[in-house]
Amino acid sequence: MSAVRSWYAPLAIRLRTTNPYVVDSALAALVLFAASLQWMFPDEGDDPLSRVGWLLGAATAVPLVWRRRFPYACALAVSAATTAMAYYHAPPPDVLYGGLVVLYTMAAQGLPWQRRSMLASWLLGAVVTMQHKEHSEPFEYAFHLTGMICAYGLGVLARVQRAYTAAVEDRARRLERERAAETARAIAQERSRIARDMHDILAHAVSLMVVQAEAGPVVVRSDPDRAEAAFDAIAASGRDAMTQLRRILGVLKEEERRGGAARLPQPDLAGLPDLVRQVAASTALRVELSVRGRSRPLPPDTEVAAYRAVQEALTNTVKHAYASCAQVELDWAEDELTLTVTDDGRGPARTAGGHGLIGLRERAAACGGSAEAGPGPRGGFRVVVRLPATAEREAALG
């Protein structure tokens, strides 16, 4: 069976890709040859032969050249020629070669009413002809009628197979489009994540560097040690920013992914104490960190979101608040982590605009949480971020 299929498959593909007129012309020539066998071997039968009979037989074959472009018109022409040949009876249609091809074509390509009417008319015409002109034996009824039904059945199978193939190809195209759209969405999300990370890193580092650069010249003569510490803080902030940028941009390098090059992990909640110390050491801002409840590991993207939220809030405090103190609070509930960053500086002017706060809200929403920012209850500014604190809930949201 596999050998037959391996032989038939290339032939079927070649026939489908060949010019239809070439294939149908060859088919018409084959039908004409079969109908002309009675003239090639006249001694084999006792039916009368005539030139008009041969022309009528040729008329059952020639229209097949246009069977795919004009299937119903071709079927009517062949049907009329076959009826005339049966009535003329010199010779009578021995085997309905053209009729078999027409029934197959109509079953494969015709409209429902065309298919049904053509099958019924050919079956009825064959029965009437055999009964009144041929006086056929019972086995001849079975032979002709079974041949017609088989030809029609093969056409139905071809139509169903073509419809199935078209449906499969359409589904494959839809899946390909959906895959391309999903890939585009994933790329856009990854680019958005990278853009937020780069914003957070650069905004934080540059803010610290600006604060120290402004303080350095003021104390360079009166307090050289403090000026030196300021410049050291600028250098440390720059080096840290470069390290984090290299880590983030590493995801864009295909060579590193293929080669399995190791990259430093993304920041998480364990890095918050270092972040607080860095901000306090690099600026005049006093930063306090407090934790309530039982801490526990979170999904990686949630940990990154929590770290970046605190980083963005402290960056805003350094850049805009003119504050002297900031408080970072982590409140662990049963299924939620609440991060609150408050300061005692100038607050309300920072509630609108700014890509940092927008990115902070997007990060929280991507993890299934929320973020809000506004004036604090005792003045200053407050940022509150709520994130799901269970892996199960995070998986459900994903």
TrEMBL record:
Catalytic activity: ATP + protein L-histidine = ADP + protein N-phospho-L-histidine
Source organism per UniProt: Streptomyces pseudovenezuelae
GO cellular component, one term: membrane
Matches recorded under SUPFAM superfamilies: ATPase domain of HSP90 chaperone/DNA topoisomerase II/histidine kinase
Keywords: ATP-binding, Kinase, Membrane, Nucleotide-binding, Phosphoprotein, Transferase, Transmembrane, Transmembrane helix, Two-component regulatory system
Annotated InterPro entries: DUF7134, HATPase_C_sf, HATPase_dom, Sensor_HK_TwoCompSys, Sig_transdc_His_kin_sub3_dim/P
Domain Histidine kinase/HSP90-like ATPase: 301-391
Protein's name according to its UniProt entry: histidine kinase
Membrane spanning residue stretches: 21-42, 48-66, 96-113
